[in-house]
Write a structure and sequence with these properties.
alpha+beta; single chain; 22% helix
Length: 160
């Protein structure tokens, strides 16, 4: 028997607001080796027509993690708890991102997760949870949509 709670398919988590702090964005950009001033210098970003520094594209992962932390602090189950996922036995599967607009320092974005599907692979030896995360801005709309899969390998003899 698998570990995922498949009755959660189709559920969408309550929206969590995440504030994008300039210092955290600059630290992240520096940590990943970003040297473009649009990601580091507010004046350079504004001179290029942006309201503040840009968030690197990979910062969407951090935003998702921050939303999960805030959900737990608010007493809500994070996405793993909702599907009964246990990181000690899960593998990271595919992950893809679609970018619709930039994220900037001092934005407050809204994050929601949708449990889109559960599938099986390898003749039932693997169960896979498919999750979509959306990052939205209240006036600019959808900024990022991420799809990922989490894989659980069933113990031998435990396949459906």
């Amino acid at each position: 028997m698998g570990i995922f709670d498949r009755t959660t398919k189709g559920q969408v988590t309550p929206t969590i607001e995440v504030a994008l702090e300039r210092g955290a964005l600059q630290f992240f950009a520096e940590t990943i080796g970003e040297t473009d001033s649009l990601y580091l210098d507010p004046e350079a970003a504004q001179a290029a027509g942006h309201p503040d520094i840009l968030a690197p594209a990979t910062y969407a992962v951090v935003v998702g993690t921050l939303a999960d932390q805030q959900a737990r602090r608010a007493g809500q189950p994070d996405i793993l708890a909702r599907i009964n996922g246990d990181l000690r036995v899960l593998l990271h599967g595919t992950e893809s991102y679609t970018y619709h607009g930039p994220m900037y320092a001092n934005d407050t974005v809204q994050v929601e997760n949708e449990i889109t599907d559960f599938t099986d692979a390898k003749s039932g030896a693997l169960e896979i949870a498919h999750i979509t995360t959306r990052i939205l801005h209240p006036t600019r709309g959808l900024l990022v949509e991420a799809s990922r899969s989490l894989i659980h390998r069933l113990p031998e003899g435990d396949s459906p």
